[in-house]
Amino acid sequence: MGATDGWEIGLHPPSLHSPSHAFDRQNLPNSAGDLDENERAGPPVPRQRSGVTEKEHWRIAVIADTHNRWPAGFPPRLQTADEIWHLGDVCRPETLDELALLSAPLTLVRGNNDEEWTWPLTRQLERRGWRFHLEHIPPARAPEGCHYLLHGHTHVPFDEQRGRCRWLNPGALSLAHRGAPASFAWLQFHADAPPVWQLELV
Length: 202
Fold this sequence. Notes:
Layout: E1 2-4, E2 7-9, H1 37-40, E3 57-63, E4 83-86, E5 106-108, E6 122-127, E7 130-135, E8 148-151, E9 158-162, E10 165-169, E11 183-190, E12 196-201
Parallel strand pairs: 2-6, 3-4, 4-5, 7-8, 8-10
Antiparallel strand pairs: 1-2, 3-11, 6-7, 9-10, 11-12
């Protein structure tokens, strides 16, 4: 796997025991005045396709906030995933054992309730020229150059364009809040088109 400007590129993520990135902020921007110039500038224009995936259609299952339990019969629903991204609060690491039966590589970040402190707090990934920042607790602002910021923690699905960056939350697989049902999401790539975010109820 290669890297460009600190963004991880490739199909197979590094070890889950990568060094953590030490920042852990909770507050979201409250108004346009909180956004930097990059975030105010409008929808993103992707860089040239990186060619990291061989398939024309690529599906990433995005999950968060499992809190030691899976909904009944859930893991087999991820069998068609080419990758799985977990946005934190797995809690006990053995919760992931069922995902080990699937062929898709797993990338995750550490949540505030996770017991495994060697998991990274953030990941910066690139897929087909689009840059993704993964973090459990949403930061105060999106990192520079980020097209999509994916987070968990709130247990409520979220999808909002903020300048050049689109903020996404797949909701929680357990303990959903504010009346939201349990949910996860698919991030789907079709040829050179922008990725499609599709929320799916459990």
